[in-house]
Amino acid sequence: MTSGWRRLHPLSPVVRSGRHVFALFVLVVLLVVSRGQGSDVVVDALFLGVFVAANVVSWGVTRWKIDGGALRIETGLLRRQSRSFPLAQLQAVDVVQTGVARVVGLAELRLRMAASGAGEGRLACLTVARAEALRRELLAGPAVPAAYAPPAVPAAPFPGGAVATWVPAGRTLFEVDTSRLAAGILLTASGAGSLLVVGCLVGLAAGGVDRAVAGAAAAWAIGIALGVWRRFNGGYGTVVIDGPDGLRIESGMVQTTAETIRRGSVQAVRLVEPLAWRWLGWCRLEVDVAGPRQRKENRSEGGRLRAVMPVGTRADAGRLLAELVPYGPAPVHRPPPLARRKAPLRYRFSGWGGDARYVVASDGRVRRTTTWVPLAKVQSIRSVEGPWQRAMGLGTVLLDTAGRRVHAVLRDRSAAEVQALMATMPDLARSARAVSEKPTSSISGPGVGPP
Amino acid sequence: MEARTAPADALDWRRPSGRLRWVRRAQVGAAVVPLALLAVAMGAVQGSAAIGGAAAGGLLVAGLALERVLARRVGAWAYAERQDDLLVRRGVLFRRLSVVPYGRMQYIDVTAGPFERSFGLATVRMHTAAAASDARIPGLPADAATRLRDQLATLGEARSGGL
Question: What band does A24 get if pLDDT is binned at 50, 70 and 90?
Fold first, then answer.
């Protein structure tokens, strides 16, 4: 397994073209519907042929091997590209199967690396068995930092009120309820909005309009339906398993994704409670893993954080949190009452809490988000003091983690508290880092120097 | 060891070079003066020199006001090196303070735009894995900037850790 170059599966070009074939098919149907006559079918077929040929060439020039603790991928016809992905920096591995890939039994392997400039390692496609074996081999690298193994302390209540309980390894932690998932999507602002738009479009079509308008409306409706479908498909059948090589998240109806996140590589955990969900006691739980988030193929997933729990009850969230943030703190420190005048809506949800390992902060105007950040993962600490805040003697502290979006925002704290936090947080983060890095001195960080 | 827990105001804060004010003045001037001249010329061509002159005067006053704001911003900028992290302070209206541990630096940029270069200055910028930790120090003399970069790189290598 570790010597010699390997190729991708010969059927990969077919699978990789599959999505585009489908998109082209939809386009042709739409054109036929709106114009009444298929005109450019030959041109479309030509485009398709070029596309498939490109994929065949790409398959022909791509090879990979595992060599000296790194996965090496060589690709490119004119511009040869040889990329090496050191396994020590591996954060997560995704096994993705599109609908076409599932029919032929193939899967795509995606590697998520720590270094921000490293890009994404992709192997498309391998057989499912090969992909699973490779995933195990890749993740069998360096040991798990001891700091992330759960300590033996009694359970602490989490903000929802439920008591966190420890679940032994190798068990299913969460399974999504499909009807709740559907209801949850419709109950968010974007879900309800798209339902409204689709309703209006259907009404317009039923009202009897000419062909061109109907075609345009159909294109809109398809676009919106695709967006909702992506969200539904992304969350459908989500199962979270505490596996031997990390947390395993499986989901998807047509396109399935099986993601394995290394235990120590969760950068932040976020609990999101939109307005309507809060009434029902539902919430969403997301994790942030370091690495580039831009993906062309799967934009629905790339745009947001990976939802460990697309929709669930507070008890579900408590179980998962016990796994992801064992005995993490609750946001108990409220901002000073003065802050109510500055941000009346945010005041209800603001708060923070912390111990030697985690900092948690809750924030939000209409929907409440609660973010847990391991102190060992904090990249930088900032404080901001706006003009209104200064007039009221307030300030905000932010803890940044790797990535673009996630910060723990300790909003509207008193000036004295801000000063104390800025003085103590760097030391707390440093000692947390020292504890977490001691058992794995073999993990080398990204080097300092020009990119 | 005492530097570890030293409060932010008991530190040896260093400031960008005084020439940075001249860089900002030059930038404002390069934007405002041609516009004012254009206004005067347009006024002369259109036959209403008074309006053109007034517009030019307004532009110059706005430029002066901008210069004052930028000068205060330059004055607010400061950085301090502690044993394990770098502190950067900036902002007049929104006061910001960033603490970046040396071990978290991924790479360090030294850049100099045309204005900065002509005054012999450069900007040092620290990048961490978080896109938001925006720690940059403008207006350092070019040799001080490269020295700071090398120093930070050495400190970062000694303390670097995994993500």
Answer: confident
- pLDDT, residue A111, reads 85
State the pLDDT at residue A152: 37
Helix (H) or strand (E) holding A294: none
Q: How many CA atoms does the CB half-sphere of B134 hold within 13 Å?
A: 8
Contacts of A403 in chain B (CB under 8 A): 129-131
| 361-420 of A, contacting B, C-beta below 8 A | 377, 379-387, 390, 398, 400-404, 407, 419
ipTM, two decimals? 0.86
Nearest CA-CA partner of A300 in A135, A54, A96, A117: A96
Q: Within this chain, do residues B150 and B91 fall inside the same structural domain, yes or no? A: yes
CA distance A395 to chain B (A): 9
Domain assignment present for B36: yes
**pLDDT tens digits along B44-66:** 888 888 888 999 999 999 999 99
Distance in Å, alpha carbon of A301 to nearest chain B alpha carbon: 20
B40 shares its domain with B60: yes
B9 in any annotated domain:
no
Of the candidates A83, A121, A125, the one whose C-alpha atom is nearest the C-alpha of residue A102 is A125
Confidence class of residue B9 from pLDDT cuts 50, 70 and 90?
low
B33/B92 same-domain check: no
How many domains, chain B?
2
Does residue B48 belong to any structural domain of this protein? yes
Pairing label, strands A106-113, A358-363 = unpaired
Kindly report, as residue ranges, where domains of CATH 2.30.29 are found in chain A. 329-439
Could you tell me which CATH class the domain A329-439 is placed in?
mainly beta
- Give residue B48's domain range: 19-73
Q: Is position B64 within any domain?
A: yes
B52 plus B123 within the same structural domain: no
Q: Enumerate the β-bridge partners of residue A96.
A: A108, A257
* Whether residues B100 and B142 fall in one domain: yes
Residue B91 near residue B84, CB atoms below 8 Å:
no
- Looking at the structure, tell me whether residues B40 and B86 fall in a common domain: no
Q: What integer pLDDT is reported at residue A384 of this predicted model?
A: 94
Q: Would you place residue A345 in the very low, low, confident or very high pLDDT band (cuts 50, 70, 90)?
A: very high
Instruction: Dump pLDDT digits (tens) for A362-372.
Output: 999 998 999 99
Interface of B with A (CB under 8 A): 4-5, 7-8, 84-85, 93-101, 103-108, 128-133, 135, 152-153, 156-157, 160-163
Identify which of A17-21, A222-226, A299-303 has the greatest average pLDDT.
Answer: A222-226
Distance from CA of A164 to the nearest CA of B (A): 27
Going by pLDDT thresholds of 50, 70 and 90, the confidence category of residue A161 is: very low
Q: Where are the beta strands (DSSP E) in A170-281?
A: 172-175, 239-243, 246-251, 256-261, 266-273
pLDDT greater than 70 at residue A296: no
Residues B111 and B149 in one domain: yes
| CA distances in angstroms from A94 to A116, A283, A295, B84, listed in the order given | 18, 24, 13, 36
